[in-house]
Specification:
By secondary structure, the chain is mainly α. Helices cover about 60% and strands about 5% of the residues. It contains eleven helices and two strands, in the order E-E-H-H-H-H-H-H-H-H-H-H-H. The protein has helices spanning about 30-35, 40-45, 50-70, 75-100, 105-125, 135-150, 160-180, 190-215, 230-255, 260-280, 285-290; strands at about 1-5, 15-20. Helix 4 packs parallel to helix 6, helix 4 packs across helix 8 and helix 4 runs parallel beside helix 10 (about 260-280). The longest helix has 27 residues, at about 75-100.
């Protein structure tokens, strides 16, 4: 029993008897305050199955609706245009390599699958603003699988085999998410991320050069249709440099003091799409068209590539 001096509401003090437990009997041990098993449970709680998924959804839930409603803004339109072309360009370059290597799927399959994967991830992944697209390692993986299969005496169907590979990859992702293995990334340095980023950037450059060099006629592509010509190859190089230079000029002008600020903003928003559309259209104009430059082999809309079923 202890006596505490308390102040009255209208002034003055009075002695109030307050029961306070003996301080010597109070233990500061977490195992005592939390119980014999709660202390261990609090340490192992972050390793519960699926807690990472639950925490991600719970942290994103308050902003999930605003991520969609905030999109009703004009600034989203140039962002959509820029992201669309930024995803289409590598998708076209890598799918061109896939259709020439595998003869099984190309531009239509890559673009449609990218859209389906992005749509599903944005709805069920609690990340509607995430940008998804095709990268170089995916193409390298598919080409490697195709080369391994083709060396077998009785090779399986390529598309079915790739489907099982990606299904197994999805299962590994599910296991990683459920067991919270991403928590161990804190023990991994950024060296792996930097090397992977360098690899992806170099793959983009390598594929860009490879697409141009393929337009030159060689003895082993004499049976292709249409047959590449030397004039068409030079036109392709001119158009590639034209797009590169005009995009760079638009970007430089948008950061300079030239023109009105609205003009600079327009160049910053639509400079790259304008360069891409203009360079692509010039391939069908005048003497450029007569040179017969190599264009992207495409089929009918929503139809498989390579004339397969």
């Amino acid at each position: 029993m202890a006596t505490r001096r308390a102040k009255k509401e209208k002034g003055g003090f009075q002695d109030v008897a307050v029961t306070v437990p003996n301080s010597a009997a109070v233990s500061r041990s977490p195992s005592v305050t939390l119980g014999p098993t709660q202390g261990v449970w609090s340490k192992l709680r972050r390793f519960q199955l699926g807690t990472g998924i639950y925490n991600d959804i719970r942290s994103r839930a308050p902003y999930y609706a605003s991520d969609w409603t905030d999109a009703w803004n004009y600034r989203v339109i140039p962002a959509i245009v820029l992201i669309f072309f930024a995803n289409v360009l590598p998708g076209i370059a890598f799918s061109l390599d896939l259709i020439e290597t595998t003869q099984r799927y190309g531009v239509s399959e890559v673009l449609l699958s990218s859209f389906m994967a992005s749509f599903i991830f944005s709805i069920f992944g609690a990340q509607p603003l995430c940008i998804a697209g095709v990268t170089g390692p995916i193409t390298v993986l598919n080409k490697t699988i195709f080369n391994i299969i083709e060396r077998q005496p009785n090779p399986p169907d390529y598309l079915q085999f790739v489907g099982w590979v990606y299904l197994w990859g999805a299962i590994l992702h599910w296991i990683t998410a459920i067991l919270n293995w991403c928590n161990f990334l804190k023990y991994v340095t950024l060296f792996s991320c930097d090397t992977f980023g360098f690899y992806v950037s170099w793959v983009y450059l390598q594929y860009g050069v490879q697409v141009i060099t393929r337009q030159f006629p060689t003895p082993d592509n004499s049976t292709e249709s249409p047959v590449p010509t030397l004039d068409g190859a030079f036109v392709g190089i001119i158009l590639a440099f034209l797009m590169l230079v005009t995009s760079y000029l638009f970007r430089t002008a948008s950061r300079s003091a030239l023109f009105h600020r609205h003009v600079r903003r327009f160049l910053a928003d639509y400079g790259m799409p304008i360069s891409l559309v203009a360079a692509s259209a010039m391939a069908y104009w005048g003497r450029f068209n007569h040179a017969n430059p190599t264009t992207l082999p495409t089929g009918r809309a929503f139809m498989p590539a390579g004339d397969r079923e």
